[in-house]
Amino acid sequence: MIGAVIVAPRASELIYSLALAVTHKLHVDDIASTFTVYPSLTGSLSEAARRLHYKITDPADH
Prior knowledge:
mainly alpha
């Protein structure tokens, strides 16, 4: 399950995506596999999830 805290100048652009993730009890894998537009703030959420997923699943590769 995902929880989120956003502290940023344009945080309002990210809140909706993360609110949906929390409401639907998504896992970081769900966010990591989501298609997003790049470059964008919401794209940064998926990229962060992909990096977190990679570190969790393949810690020896970093």
